[in-house]
Design a protein that fits this description.
The structure is a homodimer. By secondary structure, chain A is an alpha+beta fold. Chain A has 17 helices and 19 strands. In chain A, helix 9 packs across helix 11 and helix 14 runs antiparallel to helix 15. The complex binds flavin-adenine dinucleotide (2 copies). Chains A, B: This is D-lactate dehydrogenase (cytochrome). Chains A, B: Its EC number is 1.1.2.4.
Amino acid sequence: MSKPDALTALGEMLGDRLSRSKSDLDLHGRNETYFPFLPPDAVAYPETTDEVAQIVRICAAHGVPLIGWGRGTSLEGHALALQGGVTIDFSRMNRVLKVNSEDMDVVVQPGLTREDLNRELRATGLFFPVDPGANASLGGMASTRASGTTAVRYGTMRDNVLALEVVLPDGRVIRTGTRARKSSAGYDLTGLFVGSEGTLGLITELTLRLHGQPEAISAAVCAFDEIGAAVDTVIQTIQLGIPMARIEFVDAATAAAFNAYASADMPEKPHLMVEFHGSAAGVAEQTESFGEVVAENGGEGFKWSSRPEDRNALWTMRHNAYYACLGLRPGATALVTDMCVPISRLAEAVEETRADIAQASIPGPILGHVGDGNFHAILLVEPDNAAELAEAKALAHRMVERALRMGGTVTGEHGIGMGKLDYMEEEHGAAWDVMGQIKRALDPMTLMNPGKMVRAN
Amino acid sequence: MSKPDALTALGEMLGDRLSRSKSDLDLHGRNETYFPFLPPDAVAYPETTDEVAQIVRICAAHGVPLIGWGRGTSLEGHALALQGGVTIDFSRMNRVLKVNSEDMDVVVQPGLTREDLNRELRATGLFFPVDPGANASLGGMASTRASGTTAVRYGTMRDNVLALEVVLPDGRVIRTGTRARKSSAGYDLTGLFVGSEGTLGLITELTLRLHGQPEAISAAVCAFDEIGAAVDTVIQTIQLGIPMARIEFVDAATAAAFNAYASADMPEKPHLMVEFHGSAAGVAEQTESFGEVVAENGGEGFKWSSRPEDRNALWTMRHNAYYACLGLRPGATALVTDMCVPISRLAEAVEETRADIAQASIPGPILGHVGDGNFHAILLVEPDNAAELAEAKALAHRMVERALRMGGTVTGEHGIGMGKLDYMEEEHGAAWDVMGQIKRALDPMTLMNPGKMVRAN
Ligand SMILES: Cc1cc2nc3c(=O)[nH]c(=O)nc-3n(C[C@H](O)[C@H](O)[C@H](O)COP(=O)(O)OP(=O)(O)OC[C@H]3O[C@@H](n4cnc5c(N)ncnc54)[C@H](O)[C@@H]3O)c2cc1C
Ligand SMILES: Cc1cc2nc3c(=O)[nH]c(=O)nc-3n(C[C@H](O)[C@H](O)[C@H](O)COP(=O)(O)OP(=O)(O)OC[C@H]3O[C@@H](n4cnc5c(N)ncnc54)[C@H](O)[C@@H]3O)c2cc1C
């Protein structure tokens, strides 16, 4: 049992697809936010499920940790090699294996990105809706139970993964789920692996639900004087049953960031960005009903775009919000929060957070997928400024407490990684121990992404 | 460790809410279909979570099996006391605890039935959509991952349970999930308990998603000359993205059963029964588009009902289909099959099944939730006629093989119980062992509904 022996065996098996180069270790030791540099001992680039299973068996025989890697866009240091080991980079397993148009599903490899998938689907009249902004991999998205702007209509990865192929910590390969739309055949293992952040097994294949490209699409932005009015608009829209495809909130600071980063000309006020999908008549009806709600809440400056290029520009701007916000403070890094509450508490949650950040010495634009009750503050800190990081963490801590106090969750979509581990007990109580029991049953040696998700030991 | 000691302790705790009366044991040893009489040693009627936890601790201390019981309507002998023990009947835990109208969710006890829930919700403008026909309990429905006529639009119990309270096999009480609409905080334990058929713990509270009562509803029945034309209509409707709230298939034999049982006047042909929900304009658009698809496929005798009483009569008739079919052969009992396939294989699956049953000596009307690719044959056998039961089982076996061959599942909604255990390995392969690992981790003494769901030993 030794790490060097494992690396030798892996090298023999993979040739130059096992990398120990500085640039590879650097790349896989970095993260998108404020976590420290934590590189693995090596990076493996498998091309088949069989190779993944072999890698896992070799690492298991030598007690070497295994960390999955999709695109490294996760925000809580999920894929950092806390205890070293081998990072499995899925970038060479990035093919669409089969599009089943009639059944509206697709079989893909885990390293495929959502943008590449949708590019391949364009001619089929179908699309994959889950949309975390970043061009993440589908295996990574399944592993963090990702969602994004369209979850309010199309659901999260929980709702859009039909079946998986998984390599378990002992090298067994299993298939969970089928291509049938529903099943009552036993424990929902698909659901168990979705959101497990690579701590129970490595996903080597996914079967995903697809949706029909809508006949008509219409998008709009409108401004409000007060956050409360924007959020009330969201709540009323939901309660009226208007089926928004997207309904996003950005605060005044984020609007300012857009103006600077994307040369937008938004008033520096809170905004909603919405999109409707449906038949031409349906979209017309929805936009009209929504317009009424906006007007009642004092919204203004309504801009509709039904031209694809305008809509693309709008959502590209939204998807770059993180980088736009980083641009507000050149050289800064960010702590990105992710609270999610029942919709009735959303206005209060956003207002309290806004007020709290207003007292702080650091900027923190707020934006979010408010149709799900989910929003983020992007807390901008100077790298290596311990006082600022402490201040950001204190703000984030109060957001977490607020989420739990309001009956919500500490993370709506980003996941646990390193950043939220300390909140698992508070959110789940004894249920956290049940997660530990499951982890120990499937991964008794703690080989898979060790130090994450469950209680230590 | 003895069963008599456990029963004494439970009797002291529960008084006459621990029953060993013949009528109670009889009731809880029976099932809706063809499985033998398998009574428990006693039936407990707890009133609080605390009592459930105490019962579990007493039974655990004495190694006595525990079987949950909602309304006993499951179709695969799920709640039968294979190894005796104590049946926990949740009928006294049947309250609505809290309606959160703004958040469109509700907190309920497990013994509440879906009809009682919807009665209590009527004035709120909200409803709970999952609809297995039978007036099942919500705890039972969660435990079997039930669905029904509306799953095509509103999803199954998997999609509509937000959070649970569960008493584990060692008496610990946990809460899974929150009232937030989505979360990435750890393993999806809610999803793990949904569909676990009482083998991992007892559900003592559920938080359920609600939906707005639609502004407009319209329902219709129409007849087809051939099964294939009816099923093609379903496939095309789905591919056009017409958002049906219900789309049900019944074959000629079922139509005949309706005529006899519910004094209907349906031609003895295959039929589709559909319902649309939405705004007035939306429903009008959907019905028109659907009408076009029906006409293209040669459907006829279109009857629309937008009056609530006509719609109620229609769906009551559909919900009584099982009893109507039993009426086709007075004195018969039934084996109810439950295959579910990708929609592209549905026509083939129904036709093959129809042809197979046509060769058999027993009747087997076919009907199903075809929008999900899910259908049932109700195989009618004389009680105690071993040859007929063997013939029914052989037909059912071939349906299961067909489902798996076509990339589907052996049970779309009814679950495993006693009837499908022998197919778990075939459907899941090595993943079935993973279910066993989870079971052993949470219930090492195999106290919860023993003999079900996982491999014996
Ligand atoms: C600008 C920006 C915006 C974002 N917006 C959103 C958003 O709106 N919603 C949202 O949900 N997220 C968002 N994110 C976060 C991120 O995109 C998601 O968490 C995404 O799911 C990560 O995918 P990835 O491929 O980058 O995974 P990685 O970061 O590579 O890995 C994530 C986790 O999954 C594991 N993993 C990866 N692949 C596998 C596999 N095949 N098998 C098993 N485990 C695996 C890793 O070990 C790690 O624990 C955003 C990120 C950025 C940078
Ligand atoms: C006429 C008819 C039509 C039907 N149509 C459908 C249909 O369309 N779709 C469908 O899905 N089903 C259908 N069913 C089957 C049945 O209604 C469902 O399986 C339902 O979910 C069972 O609920 P129940 O309350 O009767 O549960 P039970 O039969 O009492 O129990 C079912 C299982 O759940 C366990 N259980 C019950 N309560 C709890 C609890 N609180 N905690 C833990 N475990 C518990 C039991 O031990 C058992 O294993 C139909 C049945 C009939 C008779």
